Amino acid sequence: MKVLRGRLARRWAKVDRHSRLEFSVYLAFMLAMMMFAALISSVVILRSHNREMVDRTQQWLEISGDVNRTVSALESFDGSDSSRGLLVSTQDQLRTSVEAADPGLTGGWLSELRSLLPSLQAVAEFDPVDEVALAHATALAQDLERLSSQIMVDSQHAARASSDALASWVRWVVAISILGALVLGTVVYRVLIPLNRSIRRSLTKLERWTLASERDATRRKLSTQVADGLDAATSEAQAYDVIRRTMRRIAPSLKSELLLADSSMAHMRAEVTHPDNGGPGCAVTSPWSCPAVRHGSTLAFDDSNSIRSCPHLSRRGEPCSAVCSPLVFMGNPMGVIHTTGAAGETPSRDLVDEMSLIAGEISARLGTLRAFARAEMQAATDVLTGLSNRRASEDRVARLVNGRGKGVVALVEVGGLIQLNNALGKGAGDRAIRTFAEVLRAAVRGTDLCGRWGGAQFILVVDGMSAAATTLRLENIRKKAMEAFEHGGLPGLSICFGLSDTAGVVDTNSMLAVVDGALSSAKGEKVEV
Questions:
Q1: What is the pTM of this model?
Q2: Please, what is the angle between helix 390-402 and helix 508-522, to 10°?
Q3: How far is the C-alpha of 111 from the C-alpha of 150, rounded, in Å?
Q4: Does residue 90 surpass a pLDDT of 70?
Q5: Residues 6+ apart with CB under 8 A from 117
Q6: pLDDT in tens, 291-312
Q7: Which of 454, 472, 470, 464 minimizes the C-alpha distance to 516?
Q8: Edge-first strand listing for the sheet containing 457-463
């Protein structure tokens, strides 16, 4: 090495000054050209890499969105035309995205998606839909959810790797520009740094989208679970049990309660409290005195002592934070579900969203149960007396006879209504029927049925009692009814009854025929006022 250095030094000494200057200029020009070529190539490579990363990120987002829509379609698939059409459209979109996808995205999940497309087509075309098809749809939804998570993980890893590669390129080009000239350094700084920032913004956007997608998936899963549990409930008591379990799921360490209004919409009371922590004991007394109900949306309070806090929270003994979600069914307020925590702790966004979500599910189910209960009661109730109507009474007689139970069926008739209507008007006859219905309702047990059979006839179905005991009770009813008629100024009325026990009766028609015959025989023994 020393010998080579010495030879080069001797030859350089022999070169004149002008030649040295030309050589230095030529060397500087070559270095500048190399630096410029490196800069141009770096810019081209970075722009190409950035464009490829953006395209792949867009493909990831499109495929992930198609997968999530297909999962939603599978979860709601029940074989109806609407659910079948939704599944067909989503799986067509997924097939289009998968077929157009860049093979360089990844190997595993893309091939699995291609293999699942025939199964999706089979579920969409399966007719009729049975439990096997629904189980297949559920399994496909689980596989697609797993692939969606894998897509997000692969996209994040690829984005991070791309960002690291770009950062390395940026450092290399900046180092060359520092060694070169200020102009080249300025060009590098103005070209590559913005590209790096753009990639990082894309990465940040992707991470935020992933987090939002995970939260949406969690809320969608919770919504599905709550809706399925409430749909399985056939009574308010069963729905309350589902609500307790839901409270434990979304607020395991907080006090929670469900306040519901009565039929008059003038009062509210706590129907459900947290199974472990109890309820906060809200002091609201009616739906319209609750700020959340008046606003029609979920309200969150950081501290009950703050200026904007709910006045019912400020009257509590200790300060707290709270989230209140109103229950509204078909535009009518039903109540509110709320939870409280320590004062100064801002309720999380997830808690607020979950409270709003379950409030909608609870109000829909409880409103539906109450609407069905009102419809059933109206369908089984006589309008004039409020007693059971003939259809409900026949059902009760059929249950008693077909169940081979011990009991008595009696028909009671109020006579003289035609004469009373002719003398005092039809209103007097209606008043007589209502008066007797009140006497009959007050005299029977809670397990017995009393109903209006039709016109001036009433039916009484008594469980577990003999005919003799029932006769004594009917005599007492007749005595009280006569006193009520006399006190109400309803003269000229009579009461007679016929009854039969279930012994030896084989069907409902024969039972009613026997009782009707007994009533016809008893009509000659009327007691008049």
A1: 0.47
A2: 110
A3: 13
A4: yes
A5: 91, 94, 95, 98
A6: 888 888 888 888 878 888 888 7
A7: 454
A8: 449-454, 457-463, 407-415, 494-501, 527-528
